[in-house]
Amino acid sequence: MKRSNKATTALIIFVMMLTFLNLVVVRGVLVGLIQSTVDVYKERFIGDVFISTLLKKDYIENTPNIVEIIKNLPWVTGYSVRYTKGGTIEGTYKERVSYTEKTNQANGTIAGINPAREDSVTGLSSKIIKGSYLNEDDTESVLIGAYLLKEYFPVESAAFQTLANVGVGSKVRVAVGGNVKEFTVKGILKTKVDEIDMRVFMLDTTLRSLIGRTDYNANEIAITVAPEIDPLIVKNALVQSGVEKTARVQTFEEGLPKFVTDMKDTFALLGDIVGSIGLVVASITIFIVIFVNAITRKKFIGILKGIGISSEAIEIAYVFQSIFYAVLGIGVGMAILYGFLVPFIAAHPISFPFSDGILVAEVSATFNRAFLLIAATLVAGYVPARIVVNKNTLDSILGR
Amino acid sequence: MSFIEVKNLTKSFKTGNTELVVLNNMSFKVEKGDFFSITGRSGSGKSTLLYQLGLLDHPNSGEITIDGINVSLLGKEERTKFRLKELGYVFQDYALVPDLSAIENTVIPLLMQGTPKEEAYQKAEDALQKIGMGERLHNLPNQLSGGEQQRVSIARAIAHDPKIIFADEPTANLDSETADSVIKAFLELNSHGQTILMVTHEPEYAKLTKRAIKLGDGKILADGEPESVI
User: Fold this and answer.
1) Yes or no, beta carbons of A2 and B109 under 8 Å apart
2) Which of A174-188, A288-302, A380-394 has the highest mean pLDDT?
């Protein structure tokens, strides 16, 4: 190996590097795809702790009391109280020429928010893709989620309709709780969270008056806590304060839809399967490399054995050679992974319909895979070396 | 007791249903400090005999004793250790590791014996100096002539001060001038007491040794002074 062909060595190390990246990156992207879904769900919708209505209730009773409890919790950094109600949004109704013409409408959730509070918790203003965010005095304006608009979500079925030809500045009619009101679309938002992108946002005061709610009982409260605090601590504090009697309290993990957690596990499994295939391919590659190397040097192996070098010493030399390939490949792979891929994908996430994919590559998991690859390489290097080394010494020397 | 004692040595090979007896109940002795040549026609069993004596192969039956040790009874590991410590080999085609320089090829047996690195390299260099390769220590085999490669092979064989050197047709691949120089190197080593067993089919080199045996039909046809044997 000492003076073996540099191009061949470089090629083998390159293959090992690709194998290592295959092991880490494929799984990382698959997991990252779901992880980013989880992250965005947490960041844009439910926060660290989420309070919602009990299953058999229309709203959270005693919301003002709960808000007071939240305000007094030292770990809370922000909260947003939301009023929600199912409703219908109709667009281009002024252009409709006959009653037989199909209405341009979509069903969605109408959400009433305090714009400043909502923005402090979910950063909603940063997700406006057209137009602008709501102000406190925007009583006649709404924000529309992109999935309610045909322009951004061109899917239409009998069960699910989207609004055509509605954009910023368009007039829309919002029908909710038996009342109808006309609004101007001030902005269009896209968070890649279905629950948000299928909502129409208006001021909480506007919605409350529209649905005739005179109390301050809301439907959702999203809470953010300090980064170093376990959301479970806040949840437990709320539970101990009796909030669970009138509302459901969940940490963000508990609040995730089951399909998301299922998908996360499934994608991790898929990543492991793909990685395992990569591992087998790497093992076969090393096996072939070492076998070809050893078989072409069979005569010299025989000579070494002939002059008294033990078979074990020769086998160890080949094992070291394969480990050398693996370690260098892993080293280069790690440099590319942490020096380029992770920061690059973090800065330029892979755009998927339901999330912005990131590359999840925890250091501990990466090292686990590196050790796995080294172990596989060790076996793949040892077996062919043993096969060749164990051939009859004299036959090897004489090239028989 | 002689340095090497061979008793009733038999080696045969099976080819299909027929058994070819190459060495047939052979017995002879070699004394310490001998330069012993094994001659005979092609296929007479010269190399086969050398491989049995050099512990590279197992005889079907018989006994080989080297310096009082019945090497026929040694296990695989013991044979390997014995070869490493007590024997030296020179092959017809030099048998150098192509990726290693002259000194690296020479130092292998020393390092594998556990000799400290510095001492091992010094001994390897001394061995190469001894056979006139002191100026080519760091050359790779492909940068050396055939004669030079064979000299490196000899240096590798003598570097660890073995009890016996086995040389299998060491001059077969060399031109006469280079072959002469290789034989001179052996003679020089023998003059300092080194026991050498050499297989050769070249009578002029066999004649330069102290004792020769001539093989034929699996038997020793002649044994004694080279002049009388050849």
Assistant:
1) no
2) A174-188
Q: Tally C-beta pairs within 8 A across A and B.
A: 55
Nearest C-alpha of chain A: how many angstroms from B213?
23
Contacts of A349 (CB under 8 A, 6+ apart): A36, A356, A357, A358
Residue keyed to tokens 């172990």:
A375
> Considering CB atoms only, which of B80, B85, B100 is closest to A2?
B100
Q: Is residue B230 over pLDDT 80?
A: no
Q: Do B51 and A300 touch (CB under 8 A)?
A: no
- pTM of this prediction? 0.67
All structural domains of chain B, each given as residue ranges with its CATH number in brackets, are 4-229 (3.40.50.300)
Range from A1-10, B8-17, B113-122 carrying the lowest mean pLDDT: A1-10
| Cβ–Cβ under 8 Å, residues A143 and A186 | yes
Kindly determine whether residue A309 and residue B97, on different chains, have CB atoms separated by under 8 Å: no
Q: Tell me whether A306 touches chain B (CB under 8 Å).
A: yes
Rounded Cα gap, residues B139 and A395, in angstroms: 29
Which pLDDT value is given to residue B38?
Answer: 95
Task: Tell whether A228 and A279 lie within a shared domain.
Answer: no
Mean pLDDT across the stretch B203-208? 92
B109 → closest Cβ in A1, A299, A308: A308
Per the DSSP assignment, residues forming a β-bridge with B39 are: B214
Say what the pLDDT of residue A4 is. 55
Rg (CA), chain A: 31
Within 8 A of A313 by CB-CB distance, chain B residues are: 112
> Could A309 and B87 be called an inter-chain contact, meaning their C-beta atoms sit closer than 8 Å?
no
Q: What is the mean pLDDT of residues A41-62?
A: 92
Q: Strands, E, within B44-134: which ranges?
A: 61-66, 69-70, 87-90
Which chain B residues contact residue A4 at CB under 8 A?
Answer: 99
CB atoms B95 and A394 under 8 Å: no
pLDDT band at A310 (very low <50, low <70, confident <90, very high): confident
Residues in chain A within 8 Å Cβ distance of B56: 306, 393-394, 397
Domain span at residue A270 reads 6-40+260-397
Nearest CA among B54, B85, B45 for reference residue A308:
B85
Whole-number Å distance between alpha carbons of B85 and B115: 11
d(CA B149, CA B89): 14
Assess if residue A77 is contained within a domain.
yes
> Do A138 and A271 fall into the same domain?
no
Is residue A51, in this structure, part of any structural domain at all? no
Residue A80: closest CA among A116, A54, A40: A116
* Chain A closest-CA separation from residue B81 CA (Å): 6
A233 and A270 inside one domain: no
Query: Which of B15, B99, B110 is the best residue to mutate to test the A interface, defined by the most A CB atoms within 10 Å of its own CB?
Result: B99
Is A139 part of a structural domain of the chain? yes
CA gap B71, B51 in Å, rounded = 13
Within 8 A by CB and 6+ apart from A342, the residues are: A359, A361
Q: Are A392 and A297 in contact (CB under 8 A)?
A: no
Across the interface, which of B77, B83, B99 has its CB nearest the CB of A307? B83
Relative to beta strand B219-224, strand B211-216 is antiparallel
Contact residues on chain A for B109, CB-CB shorter than 8 A: 307-309
